[in-house]
Design brief:
555 residues; alpha/beta; Transcription Regulator spoIIAA; two-stranded antiparallel ribbon; 8 strands
Length: 555
């Protein structure tokens, strides 16, 4: 068998030391980060740890990217938190595991179908609006845990307003623990500890909470049972698939877009860039494994990938080691993980939220024009007020509408004046078709259905003075025409025929000729008025012009 996975190099003897060190850093840092992801998703925090453990190992084995880290990302965790079937389930959380497996299957199928190139159709304005909405939701979603006040309301924005109206009910020790965590993380990250400063800060705050006698501060074990064992396999429920399909599609979309950004920006150690579809396959397989082993949906993490690369990773071994370190942490220190202070984890997530904000990108999009501004704002507002699985699909819909709108308005019809032995001179088309003359028109842009009305509006009008004239439309490069566009051509040809004039098509692809014939429009235009494309540029147009001039000159 000649499988790509068997040909991959999983470690380099010359860089084993660097990979072990980088894997240790990522693994230790991922323990509190994984718990925070579970907390963000409103499920048992240990499920976040399980997804980190399985995601980084499976992703390291199967992705096209050598250094990509596959974990439960903040954006995906927030989508999980908006799925009631998951957040209201009891342990073991079969709906969560089913959602994870289903998301992984969608990713895997997308990779096998080589759909990696499709993510380029998602405009930057949609992603900027979505990412910043996610960042703000991360911050707002932790305020209850951070302050010790249980707010009420239909969404996080309303609950935040409720908190602001009841600041007198904030639990001071809880707030102090959260604020101190943020200060410690920001301070220790500036020391030699760097990313490990986050781990030290969380465990330090969790240690002094009982010493200070602050028994009222919530701990991780108060929220859910934190086992000190590795997960056993759990089969997904097929009965839940119809209910969870839309959230799974949203999760897959977010995960794949995040992964594609890494595939396009992070080169492999040999200097080559990974294949986005190959990364889709690896992320999908990681999701399936994570779901079977009681984990959350996973996708490529830019922050984790940057961390492991910055720590010195040079091969796939680094992420494999990180997964092993997480597994050892669960087995050896599971009980200690349960003692972690919840406001400390909330402080960590607030920092992550602020670092997820992309205000520079917001400013860039804002400068591009009103259409991009509107799309970004609508996506941002939808992300705040609508469950994220629907906000994601709304963003995709906006992306499609934006693409159609832009392409339809980019169609432009120009007139060519062609003199013997001269280059064509381009200009605006005449307002009316001049009688007893040849008019050459060339359309620029995509001639699909939404562009047909824009194209039709730019055609010269056919009037009483347009008799015995020829209009040549150059279609070179168009391999397929939609029925709407062909209807426009047929009506224009009929209008010209009623004035004893002709519509001629030059540079016509054989496939387009077949379309015209099958739809009956060829009969309206006339087969003798269609000139097939030639490998010699301009030959078909010249043949059409010669035929038009001879017809006009004929008595």
């Amino acid at each position: 068998m000649n499988l790509p996975i068997l040909r991959r190099q999983y470690f380099n003897r010359a860089t084993v030391r660097e990979d072990l060190s980088a894997g240790l850093v990522l693994g230790i840092q991922s323990i509190p980060d994984g718990l925070a992801s579970g907390l963000l998703a409103l499920v048992n925090p240990v499920y976040g740890l399980y997804s980190y453990m399985t995601g980084v190992i499976t992703g390291a084995l199967l992705t096209s990217s050598v250094l990509m880290s596959v974990q439960a990302t903040s954006a995906m965790a927030l989508i999980v938190a908006s799925v009631p079937e998951v957040t209201r389930a009891s342990d073991p959380n079969v709906p969560l595991f089913t959602l994870t497996v289903l998301t992984g299957l969608i990713m895997l199928v997308a990779g096998l179908l080589r759909l990696g190139k499709l993510v380029r159709f998602v405009p930057n304005s949609v992603m900027v609006g979505f990412v910043n909405a996610v960042a703000l939701l991360i911050i707002l979603g932790q305020l209850d845990t951070f302050t010790g006040y249980s707010s009420s309301g239909p969404n996080r924005v309303v609950r935040t307003l409720d908190l602001l109206r009841n600041l007198d009910q904030v639990h001071a020790p809880t707030l102090a623990a959260g604020v101190l965590t943020i200060i410690l993380i920001l301070t220790l990250e500036r020391t030699r500890l760097k990313a490990l400063g986050m781990v030290v800060a969380l465990f330090f705050i969790s240690l002094i909470v009982p010493l200070a006698g602050a028994e009222q501060i919530a701990l991780a074990r108060d929220v859910a049972d934190i086992p000190s064992s590795l997960p056993l396999p759990v089969l997904p429920s097929l009965a839940l698939v119809p209910t969870l399909l839309i959230p799974a599609l949203s999760l897959a979309f977010v995960g794949l877009v995040q992964g594609a950004s890494i595939s396009a920006s992070v080169a492999n150690p040999d200097g080559s860039f990974p294949n986005a579809s190959g990364d889709f396959v690896g992320q999908g397989a990681a999701g399936i494994v994570a779901g079977v082993l009681q984990g959350m949906p996973v996708g490529a993490s830019m922050s984790a990938t940057s961390l492991v690369i910055g720590a010195g990773a040079r091969s796939r071994l680094a992420n494999i080691v990180a997964g092993v370190v997480i597994a050892l942490g669960i087995v050896l220190f599971g009980r200690l993980v349960g003692l972690m202070a919840m406001p400390a984890l909330a402080g960590l997530l607030i920092i992550i939220g602020f670092r997820t904000l992309k205000l520079g990108q917001v400013l860039t999009v804002w400068k591009t024009g009103p259409v991009q501004q509107t799309v970004m704002l609508l996506t941002f507002i939808a992300g705040l007020l609508v469950p994220l699985q629907y906000a994601v699909l709304m963003g995709v819909g906006l992306a499609v509408l934006l693409y159609v709108f832009q392409q339809s308005n980019r169609v432009r019809v120009v007139a060519w004046r062609v003199e013997p032995g001269q280059y064509p001179v381009e200009g605006e088309p005449p307002a009316e078709v001049p009688g007893r003359q040849v008019t050459v028109l060339v359309p620029y842009g995509s001639l699909f259905f939404a562009a047909a009305p824009v194209f039709n509006a730019q055609l010269p009008a056919v009037t009483e003075g347009s008799r015995h004239a020829a209009v040549i439309l150059v279609l070179r490069g168009e391999t397929e025409l939609g029925s709407t566009f062909m209807e426009v051509l047929a009506r224009y040809a009929q209008a010209l025929r009623e004035r004893e004039s002709r519509l001629m098509l030059a540079g016509v692809d054989p496939g387009v000729l077949i379309q015209l014939e099958r739809t009956g429009h060829l009969q309206t235009i006339g087969r003798n008025n269609v000139f097939l494309v030639d490998e010699r540029i301009g030959q078909s147009l010249q043949e059409a012009m010669d035929a038009a001039e001879q017809w006009i000159a004929a008595p």
